[in-house]
Amino acid sequence: MVQAPQSQALQLNLPSAVALQVTPAQFAALAIANRELRLERTAQGYLIVNPPTGGETGHRNFSITGQLSVWFEANDTLGVGFDSSTGFELPNGANRSPGAAWLRRDRWADLSAAQRQGFVPLCPDFVIELRSQTDNLKDLVTVPGTTLAERSRSQNPAEMSPMPSGQAKPTTPLRGRLQDLQAKMQEYLDNGAQLGWLIDPQNQRVEIYRAGQAVEVLEQPATLFGEAVLPGFTLNLKRIWA
Question: Which of 2, 84, 138, 151 suits a disulfide with 29, CB 3.0-4.6 Å?
């Protein structure tokens, strides 16, 4: 009896000019198969690969998540906090993973057990995005041949292909590109977020996004306040600017 050779993982290097479209089911399979990467998907279905951060960004993320966690533990009746590994499926169909997020307790309670286990099917009330310095890292997608097909039998993996020639090519953003992060913050607001902070350590600048208001830009702030959305929360930026 002849046995078929076992499938091996294939590494696909994507040039920045190539955009890869995937279905929601294919995205879920890719996320499971590539847990070391923070994958995201735009509302139009284009895959975004966020490479692992460097040490400085990881340290800053740790400080931000830690401070939010301390506030959450003291105010756990108000809502639920999430770290950067959490995926949210926004109302517009995009799959996003903020650097840190918080959701009102009543909205979390309305979700079923199954919805809580998978990508959270709503937009957080509060999000933080931290600009990193991984702009120059290559987009790398690891697609484990048959494993993807087995986890998404109803989809044809061949559909995950570059855009046909002649169509406008959207950018394939890497985490850290400022304009892409700004568009991402606006997307959060458009999908229901009430407050968002875009923290830019490279320029020691913070952009504050509020529902129904113009963006406020702060230069070298020492602290940020959660306002009415996260009452009593204060984020100390000392370690972020260090």
Answer: 151
The alpha helices in the chain, defined as continuous H runs, are 24-33, 55-74, 105-109, 113-117, 145-151, 178-190, 238-241
| Cα pseudo-dihedral 208, 211, 214, 215, rounded to 10 | 20
Nearest one of 10, 13, 93, 19 to 51, comparing CA atoms: 13
Q: Cα(124)–Cα(82) distance, rounded to whole angstroms? A: 9
And the tokens for 159?
């559909």
What the block records as the tokens of 43 is 């509302």
Which structure tokens are listed for 139?
């987009």
CA-based max dimension of the chain: 70
CA-CA distance, 49 to 137, in Å (whole number)?
10
Structure tokens at 32: 């499971």
pLDDT tens sequence across 5-52 = 454 555 656 566 667 899 999 999 988 888 878 899 999 999 998 878
- Asked if residue 141 lies in contact with residue 12, where contact means CB atoms within 8 angstroms, the answer is yes
Higher pLDDT: 195 or 19? It is 195
DSSP-based three-state secondary structure for 54: coil
Q: What are the Cα distances from residue 180, in Å, to 126, 174, 190, 198, 234?
A: 18, 8, 15, 11, 26
> Is the CATH number of domain 10-241 3.90.1570.10?
yes
